[in-house]
Design brief:
Blueprint: H1 15-20, H2 23-26, H3 30-47, E1 51-59, E2 70-77
Antiparallel strand pairs: 1-2
Length: about 80
Amino acid sequence: MEYHQGWLATEQTGKQAEWRTDPARSGPAGALGDIGTHAEQLATFVSGLLLEEVAAELTAFVPGRRLDDDASMLLRFEGAQEVC
């Protein structure tokens, strides 16, 4: 699943960018907490499966940004079979 919101990939100003990139105002979760929660809810709703494990790589594209603005993730759902 992908959710592209590229406007934060560069230095931005304005109300939306200000609170999203300030951990004191938005919390420590960054892009994953902001947008990732919607992707998780959609995946569990559509599949009917519960999320069991998450592995993620978090990145900040803007130098000096204190929160991530990109996340790449692997999700394992309850009852999913491992493939070798």
